[in-house]
Amino acid sequence: MTFKPLIMSLMTMLCSLFGCTAQTIGFRSVEAEEFGRIIADTTQAVTRLDVRTAAEYAEGHIANAVNIDVLDGNFESRATGKLPKDKTVAVYCRSGKRSKKAAAILVRNGYSVVELNSGYMGWTKAGMPTDR
């Protein structure tokens, strides 16, 4: 009798469980409605950051968002050189994967970060406003 299928299932479950937790250490990941409330709250200092490509950004984005492509090799230096540390960074991408990567980089550099879990696709699906 082999335990290989059982071991593989157990490893997959553990990787999924701990992988998701590790990705959000140091920042909050929220859905579109809460993200909208955070960026609309004028009592908080928030910088909106779109980490998609320039072409994706040009097709539509959240109003007043700064665009710095997280896949650009200079993302970290560009972001830390442009984004103020005294404001929370509200970061998003297309689906939520790249923004988690960007959020981790920003947190490592001392930023307070809120990340749009479902990305721009979730934002538009929820009927939230965009700039085109």
Specify the biggest β-sheet.
5 strands, parallel
- Assigned CATH class: Alpha Beta
Order of helices and strands: HEHEHEHEHEH
Choose one word for the global shape: globular
Fraction in beta strands:
5-15%
- Helix share of residues? 40-55%
Number of domains: 1
Strand order of the largest sheet: 1-5-4-2-3
What's the CATH architecture name? 3-Layer(aba) Sandwich
Using the coordinates shown, work out and report the CATH topology. Answer: Oxidized Rhodanese, domain 1
Average pLDDT taken over every residue: 88
How many H/I helices?
A: 6
- Could you list the spans in which at least 5 consecutive residues all have pLDDT below 50? 11-23
The number of strands is 5
User: Which structural class is indicated by helix and strand composition?
Assistant: alpha/beta
CATH superfamily label = Rhodanese-like domain
Cα gyration radius (Å): 17 Å
**How far apart, in Å, are the first and last alpha carbons?**
60 Å
